């Protein structure tokens, strides 16, 4: 197609195509749907007859079935999914297949498919994030009175509870999900009909009608959609990084709490691994890889932020790499939330070990503030308690919790309110809802 009678050398194909054919194998069903809407539009402007539009739609169904059966694939020599679809349509329909690329470019074609895929993929991640948040809030609900040490600078600081620990991460996760929803909404814009970024002459393509048929919230108003490449993807991956960073710290906590030195939790055996040499070992590999995923996401974000910089306007082949970065980041995040959602329900808190770790010094702040309540200036109370730490005792669980009355503190976590907020952030349905109604 590109070389007008001459063939590219093998290394040129390898270098320019890269891994794109693998990603296009995933995107192919979305390109089929974009092509279906494009065929309808060509029927509206008289390029295809009504009969040809119906034939194309039927052929696209057949290609989808063949793809699902593994009979239609994208190979490196195909270069991309667009070639495969056009070739299959032409083989099945003849001239109708040859007409299908009228009024389109691979630029708006791939962006349309990518954004359709992204809508589904982010819905899955939103559902996974909701599952993680729900599992955390289950722990919070059961752990309202389960006291444990809280830490600053890696040292015991003040008492906290399992509920505060778990609800704190659920609260962050809800913020992350709201950010993901905003990024998803920003990408829920139809690039269809913009062609190579300069619009389509002669044909009066119904851009808004096709956007509606494809379920996009709106049409990207100006045809220069290539200017948005990297930015829309970067906004999505930035939101994924925030989610990844929350789960990074959560995984770090659980891996630390599971050590023999802490012993605050037991991890589900099915989500740990053994050692090839040490018979006794059970390693938190799932949590460690979950922790590491945040760094993978950051690497993809770095590419998306820097690759488009300094490029002149319009399309450049450099921008091809934004697709891979986005799809890698989305795939890694999808695996991340699935992994953490699988581990959390099996985490068992060890109340005896946590209680034994409640040393008297954890209650120094409470003792100082009791003296403040009785009229002692804070700095005097601070000094008196700090110079007589040996006089402190560990209070009963009930007394320790009774010292707190503010919302969000030990013994005062409103799990129900957090569940409601998480549900609203993730959408009212089973998925992160980025449909036009939202």
TrEMBL record:
This protein's UniProt keywords: Amino-acid biosynthesis, Arginine biosynthesis, Lyase
Recorded catalytic activity of this chain's protein: 2-(N(omega)-L-arginino)succinate = fumarate + L-arginine
Top-rank EC class of the record's enzyme: lyase
EC number: 4.3.2.1
Pathway stated in the Swiss-Prot or TrEMBL entry: Amino-acid biosynthesis; L-arginine biosynthesis; L-arginine from L-ornithine and carbamoyl phosphate: step 3/3
Any Pfam family: Lyase_1
The keyword Lyase is assigned to this record: yes
One Gene Ontology cellular component annotation held by this UniProt entry: cytosol
Fumarate lyase N-terminal domain: residues covered: 30-296
Domain of life of the native organism: Bacteria
Ribonucleoprotein is among the record's keywords: no
Name of the protein described by the UniProt record: Argininosuccinate lyase
Organism: Rubrivirga marina
Lineage: Bacteria, Pseudomonadati, Rhodothermota, Rhodothermia, Rhodothermales
């Amino acid at each position: 197609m590109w070389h007008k009678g001459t063939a590219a050398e093998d290394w040129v194909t390898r270098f320019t195509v890269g891994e794109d054919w693998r990603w296009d194998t995933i995107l192919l069903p979305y390109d089929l749907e974009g092509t279906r809407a494009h065929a309808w539009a060509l029927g509206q402007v008289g390029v295809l007859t009504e009969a040809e539009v119906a034939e194309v739609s039927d052929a696209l169904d057949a290609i989808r079935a063949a793809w699902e059966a593994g009979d239609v694939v994208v190979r490196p020599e195909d270069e991309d999914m667009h070639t495969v679809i056009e070739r299959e349509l032409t083989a099945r329909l003849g001239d109708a297949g040859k007409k299908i690329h009228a009024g389109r470019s691979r630029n708006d074609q791939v962006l349309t498919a990518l954004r359709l895929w992204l809508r589904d993929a982010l819905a899955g991640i939103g559902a996974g994030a909701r599952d993680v948040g729900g599992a955390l809030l289950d722990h919070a609900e059961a752990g309202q009175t389960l006291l444990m040490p809280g830490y600053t600078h890696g040292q015991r600081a003040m008492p906290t509870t399992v509920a505060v620990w778990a609800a704190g991460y659920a609260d962050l996760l809800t913020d992350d999900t709201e950010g993901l929803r905003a990024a998803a909404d920003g990408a829920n814009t139809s690039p269809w009909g913009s062609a190579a970024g300069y619009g389509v002459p002669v044909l009066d393509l119904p851009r808004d009608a096709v956007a509606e048929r494809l379920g996009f919230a709106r049409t990207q108003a100006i045809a220069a959609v290539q200017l948005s490449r990297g930015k829309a993807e970067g906004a999505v991956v930035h939101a994924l990084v925030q989610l990844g960073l929350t789960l990074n710290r959560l995984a770090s906590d659980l891996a630390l709490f599971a050590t023999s030195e802490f012993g605050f939790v037991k991890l589900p055996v099915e989500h740990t691994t053994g050692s090839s040499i040490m018979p006794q070992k059970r390693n938190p590999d799932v949590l460690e890889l979950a922790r590491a995923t945040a760094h993978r996401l950051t690497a993809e974000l770095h590419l998306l932020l820097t690759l488009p910089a300094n490029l002149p306007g319009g399309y450049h082949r450099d921008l091809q790499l934004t697709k891979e970065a986005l799809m890698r980041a989305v795939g890694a995040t999808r695996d991340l939330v699935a992994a953490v959602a699988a581990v959390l329900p099996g985490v068992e808190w060890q109340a005896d070990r946590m209680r034994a770790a409640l040393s008297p010094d954890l209650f120094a702040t409470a003792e100082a503030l009791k003296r403040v309540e009785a009229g002692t200036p804070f700095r005097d109370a601070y000094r008196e308690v700090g110079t007589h730490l040996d006089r402190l005792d560990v209070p009963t669980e009930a007394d320790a919790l009774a010292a707190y009355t503010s919302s969000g503190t030990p013994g005062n976590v409103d799990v129900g309110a957090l569940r409601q907020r998480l549900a609203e952030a993730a959408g009212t349905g089973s998925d992160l809802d980025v449909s036009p109604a939202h």
